[in-house]
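User: I'm preparing a small set of examples for a lab meeting where we compare how different chains pack in three dimensions. I only have the primary sequence for this one, and I'd like the structure in token form so I can line it up with the others. Please keep the answer compact; I'll paste it straight into my notes.
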Amino acid sequence: LACALAIQALGMALPALAEGPWAAGAAAVLFGGTFMGAVALAMAAGRALAPGRAVAILTAGYALGQIVGPALAGAVAGTGYRPALFIGSAFALVGAAAAATGRTSIVIYTRV
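Assistant: Understood. Below is the structure token output for the 112-residue chain.
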């Protein structure tokens, strides 16, 4: 989870750090390629931390981010899109750090 969030953070920041179609394409691959995996890993971590309530807690947190994120981005939009991308990237890095130092380990079971 920490690795996926760190890759997402790089994907968010890349268009603010570099210009051109290659930056947009790389950002799409980095962010888009890890999005579903990060969601699945976060759900697994949530189940380990709060069995029975994980989906509700994570959904509420996601909803809060969907409300606060655009409002924060709008507040800094007057100076361009770069600050919003860096803020989003910083939040992803905070999540990555929290996941890396989390109090749980995730074991993924597969059926054979």
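A couple of notes for your slides: Residues 11 and 29 are 8 Å apart (CA to CA). The helical segments are 2-17, 21-49, 54-75, 82-100.

User: Perfect, thanks.
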